[in-house]
Design a protein that fits this description.
Elements lengths: L2 E5 L3 H13 L3 E6 L2 H11 L3 E4 L8 H12 L3 E6 L3 H11 L3 E4 L4 H12 L13 H7 L10 H11 L4 H8 L3 H14 L5 H10 L5
Length: 208
């Protein structure tokens, strides 16, 4: 029987996935509601599959993915998130995920995705495999593709109304470093006011 670990800060999401897996005869061996606990549980339980959101407290989901891939070897990693595939699918693929699925997908699609990833298939929307030039043509001028994973994490925290102190605590960086990232973001995204930066982030669905 395949052992599965769920990492998601939303209890209802974990419950829905857990019920679906149980219907398929798949054992959920653990659940975590943040990235730090998720990594710790994964290392101790050694699951065959981790289903995780990348919108996580305490440690950015993309960093969680990369650490899980490094420490768990052949474990399958399936991202289940509300964040936009156009921006995150390719980053998750690069970080080591085996699949990317939107939470807006129906239960049947989720069932198929989980079974496919367990069976060894890679499951990503087309955006993940598009070339950089194609991405820039599809979303001209947004500048989001030029952001590093950490810059994107800070931008998403801003979109969710977090202040410098909260961002520093959640990403384990200094208050001064947060200010540096904000300056970089404003420069890269060609904005002069913090409110414009936040509006931009929310318009691009980064507050999920």
């Amino acid at each position: 029987m395949c052992k599965v670990l769920l990492i998601d800060d939303q209890p209802m999401s974990r419950l829905a996935v857990s019920v679906l897996l149980e219907q398929e005869g798949i054992e959920v061996v653990g659940e975590a509601d943040n990235g730090v606990s998720g990594i710790s549980l994964a290392r101790s339980l050694e699951p065959e599959l981790v289903v995780l959101d990348i919108s996580l407290p305490k440690l950015d989901g993309l960093e969680v993915l990369a650490r899980l891939r490094q420490s768990l070897g052949e474990c399958k990693l399936l991202v289940l998130t509300s964040l936009p595939a156009s921006l995150y699918a390719s980053r998750c693929l690069k970080a080591g995920a085996n699949g990317f699925l939107s939470k807006q997908e129906g239960l049947e699609n989720m069932r198929v995705a989980i079974k496919s990833v367990i069976s060894g298939y890679s499951l990503f929307p087309g955006e993940a495999h598009a070339s950089r030039a194609q991405q820039l043509r599809r979303e001209p001028g947004t500048g989001l593709d030029d952001l590093s994973d950490r810059e994107l994490a800070v931008l998403r925290k801003l979109a969710n109304g977090k202040n410098n102190k909260e961002i520093a605590e959640q990403l384990f960086i200094s208050h001064k470093t947060v200010s540096t990232y904000k300056s970089r973001l404003m420069e890269k995204l060609n904005t002069r006011r913090l409110v414009d930066l936040i509006d931009f982030a929310r318009q691009n669905e980064l507050c999920a």
